[in-house]
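The material for today's practical consists of a large collection of protein records. Getting from the letters to the tokens is the skill we practise here. To make this concrete, we reproduce a full record directly below:
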Amino acid sequence: MQIIEIQDIAKFLINPLLYVLGGLILLMFLKKHRLKLTLLLGIYFYFISITFTGQVFSTLWKVNDTFNPDITYDAVVVAVGVTDPRWYINHKDLQYIPNDFFSTIEDSDRIFAGIYFVKSGHAKLLLFGEWINDIYNEAKVVKKLASGMGLKENQIYIYGWVERTLDEAEGVKLYTEKHPVRKILLVTSQSHMRRALAMFRKQSLNPDVFSVKKEVAITWESFIPDVNGIIKTQEYLYEVIGYIGYYLKGNL
């Protein structure tokens, strides 16, 4: 029997287009107040589809960087999810694409930042979880990337199997109990940082943080409806609902 996780419920509930569909269905049966509902749907759709909404969420939700360039961290922890496993699974039978090829996505910034901090001497070790999706093991691809970018074998460590951020926090905690790691730098996307940091602190870890995929400045284009606006709104709603859910479970 498949267990439904908080994130599965959240992904369904925070789909902003789901409520547009619900409103349109309701309009088919309403005889009164149809004009009001149509106006409300129009306003709702406008605000969920402009990037300005996500940018406001970002301002309220972000965690300020505490990375200190004068410190040499014992380890930099990079959150998994820096590649798209579906891409690899869908292309697994194509002979011209290597199995260990690194295909970038927006969240790939995480691993590039982590590798940079080790190469620049700001961190001694790169810690990364082993995230396996179907036949795809992201850690193997990341290790090859790190090696190709100049990291030595002893500068990257896969600390254990993970599926969600909670597994990462618990896995890093176990690693620190067995190894002399005290000062940690946590790297993840700006929208994800608040939830990730809360989970690490719940494990009595208090890492410094460095966010990637930071929001750009607000411009006139921020107020033009765009599919990216819907994606950005959904991304932050997911983080807020996920945060509340894990808080209620006592995980942060």
About this structure: The mean pLDDT is 89. The chain has two domains: 6-62+223-249, 75-212.
